[in-house]
Amino acid sequence: MTCINDVDIVIIGGGIIGCSIAYEFSRYKLIIELLEQESDLCYGASGANTGLIHAGFDPPPGSLKAKFNSEGNRLIPQLAHELEVPFKQIGALVVGYNDSDISKLEKLKCRGLENGVSGLKILQQEEIHNLEPALNKDINGALFAPSAGIISPYEFTIALAENAAINGVKIRLSTRVMDIIVKHNSIKGIKTPNGRLNCRYVINAAGLFADKIASLAGLDTFTITPSRGEYLILDKRVKGLVNHTLFPLPRKVSKGIVVTPTVDGNIMLGPNAEEIENKSDNITTARGQANVINGSLKLVPRLNVNEVICRFAGIRTIPNTNDFIIGPTELEGFINVAGISSPGLTSAPAIAKHVVQIIADEENKKLLKKEEYIKGRPQRFIPRLATPQKHHENIQQNSAFGHVLCRCEHVTSGEVISELHRPVPVTTLKGVKLRTRAGMGRCQGAFCSQRLIFLLSHELNIPVEKVTLSGEGSEILIKSNKGTAGKK
């Protein structure tokens, strides 16, 4: 097999964990490649979750979840600022209805204090309803966690990858790991459809498929079970109905169905939790949606479910260890960063720093920092966030920023075209959606999808029938017998 490169580290997985690790390692004089089997980043759990930055009161004290949740929560505000990622520290409320619930909230507060969470406070009924007038009037107590926040999980993932890319990390999309090459109990390389990558270290951040990647290396020490969580997104017309992230008391299998604002001005409901067999089974179901609606209405009875504009499901990673799986293995050079379920998004920056330290220890602290390291990522111009004067000036320089493609989210042709030439270029309709919000508004792409398809066809210089939703096999249009494009 042809060798396509000799590298120091291969990171497997282009979700929030893999991209956080790539971001941290890009500060050092190392040759690094990140492999993602999908056609773009964060197509798995990292692109389909609640986008919550957890305070850290829920994980069991002493667990890896508790350690990295608290550390990650402290890192994210500055990191989001540096990478220009939407983030709001709005705080969270865990609510209770009776004396038994209040007792559980007190225990949750004690757990949070043990985990190093600051600012936790038990609120009484009047305080709660002053903060959240739309809450169920039967709620008479809540744990308030001011350090909790909300973020765009896919923007965060992409921003980390873009910084890594401009600092030299090679990101290979649509690249599946076929095998892992081991010799004398030591990592030697990775086999992909495009050839072999020789490497000294493999970091297994493959999310739902981390157990499969580990087994390719002959390691069968854990298993991953998929759990499907369904969500509803409400239209921006209901913005302001809730001001904080609202939780019921957590259960053993999940934190329960949540009602939360998003950084983009919508309200999100969910998720439920359903253990499934197929790791790709991200369908929504009538039963799951009803479960989400009922749980949400229990928290906020005034929610109008007629304002739902989007329904989707995400698949969560549930390890059989009940905790994160992070660390070196018996195979020299193979490091697991697996089983990263909630609060994985919050924990990601702290986990990445820990992984760097693992390899620094392996290398006897000989990792050398780059003198020419570049902070942040290339600036993006987003007209809907700019002043009218700045928007007008930008149109004078580039008229494409005056052509609105997506009416609901006010996304222009200029924004889409710019994303095609970013450090991690986008080539799919879903990729454009994640980066620009085109198609995420009230009509869910009914107005703009056709225009986006033709724009991608023109800018990528490919036939319209080659434009895909999310990579090979998801083509949107086909050719008719007359040679014209028709809907698939």
Beta-strand proportion: 15-25%
Classified by CATH, the class of the largest domain is: Alpha Beta
Multimeric organization? single chain
The 3D shape can be described as: globular
Query: What's the number of domains?
Result: 3
How would the blueprint of this fold be written?
Elements: E1 3-6, E2 9-12, H1 16-25, E3 32-35, E4 52-53, H2 64-83, E5 87-88, E6 92-96, H3 99-114, E7 121-124, H4 125-131, E8 141-145, E9 149-151, H5 153-166, E10 170-172, E11 179-183, E12 186-192, E13 195-198, E14 201-204, H6 210-216, E15 224-234, E16 245-247, E17 258-261, E18 267-270, E19 274-275, H7 286-299, E20 308-319, E21 325-328, E22 334-338, H8 344-362, H9 388-397, E23 404-406, E24 411-412, H10 413-419, H11 429-436, H12 449-460, E25 477-479, E26 485-487
Parallel strand pairs: 1-13, 2-3, 2-14, 3-10, 6-16, 14-22
Antiparallel strand pairs: 4-9, 5-9, 6-8, 7-8, 11-12, 12-13, 15-18, 15-19, 15-20, 17-18, 21-22, 23-24, 25-26
